[in-house]
Structures are given as structure tokens and as C-alpha cells.
């Protein structure tokens, strides 16, 4: 089974975007001006699977900053405690490379 590709900032613990097929990730890194321009600040994390989590707003600090907490996807108690803001994809035991390095290695192995 082909590993899933997560594209995002380096050392990201989670991703707001769902995982991609590796061919799609390679294409995006080569043709998307923003991803391409980010260079080594963009990373590809490869994983066989991921865990879906919920990022919820649980309150506000005295200074007006939002307080957040992560909950397991579908936690029946979470919706009573906090407002859902994002779903988070958390890759399980990913291997990581910078975007340009990953594309270069992939291109070499195909040639």
C-alpha cells in the first residue's frame, strides 16, 4: 500500500488538509507557486495511516486569546464542552523530508 503524503510546514504535528496521493503531492509541490516558493519551509510527511482529531475552542484567556483543546474524532462529550473549529489529520509515525528534497529523491528513483 502506498504511503499517504501530508504537505505542510516543517515539523508539523498535524495538518488541516487531508493527505494526498504521492503523485498529487509531487505535482502540487512543483506547480503551485506558493508551495514551490516556500522551499525548505515545506515538508512532506509520509505515513501509512493517520488519526483524525477535533480542534475545539474551550474558552478565552483574560487577554482575549482563544484557548483550544484537541479531542478524539467523534468524542461524544467534546461537543458539549467546546466549539469545533477544525478537524486535524495527525499522521502516525511519519517519515519526513523537505519538499524539494522529497521531490528530487522521487524524480531520481523514477528515472
Can you tell me about this structure?
The protein is of the alpha+beta class and 111 residues long. It folds into two domains: 1-48 and 92-111, no CATH class; 50-89, no CATH class. It contains four helices and six strands, in the order βααβββαββα. The chain has helices at residues 22-31, 33-38, 78-81, 99-110; strands spanning 4-9, 42-47, 50-60, 66-72, 83-91, 95-98. The strands form two sheets. The chain has a three-stranded antiparallel β-sheet. It has a three-stranded antiparallel β-sheet with strand order 4-3-5. A hairpin with a 5-residue loop joins β3 and β4 (66-72). The protein is elongated. It starts with a strand and ends with a helix.
Distance between the termini: 21 Å
General shape: elongated
Helicity range of the residues? 25-40%
Give the spatial strand order of the biggest sheet: 1-2-6
Q: How many structural domains in the coordinates?
A: 2
Mean pLDDT: 92
Classification by helices and strands = alpha+beta
Q: How many runs of DSSP E, i.e. beta strands?
A: 6
Q: From the alpha-carbon coordinates, what is the Rg to the nearest angstrom?
A: 17 Å
Question: Segments where pLDDT lies below 50 for 5+ residues?
Answer: none
SSE string, helix = H, strand = E? EHHEEEHEEH
**SS summary, helix count:** 4
Q: Which strand-content bin applies to the residues?
A: 35-45%
The biggest beta sheet is recorded as: 3 strands, antiparallel
What is the compact description of this entry?
The protein has 111 residues and is α+β, with helices and mostly antiparallel strands.
Secondary structure elements and pairings:
Elements: E1 4-9, H1 22-31, H2 33-38, E2 42-47, E3 50-60, E4 66-72, H3 78-81, E5 83-91, E6 95-98, H4 99-110
Antiparallel strand pairs: 1-2, 2-6, 3-4, 3-5
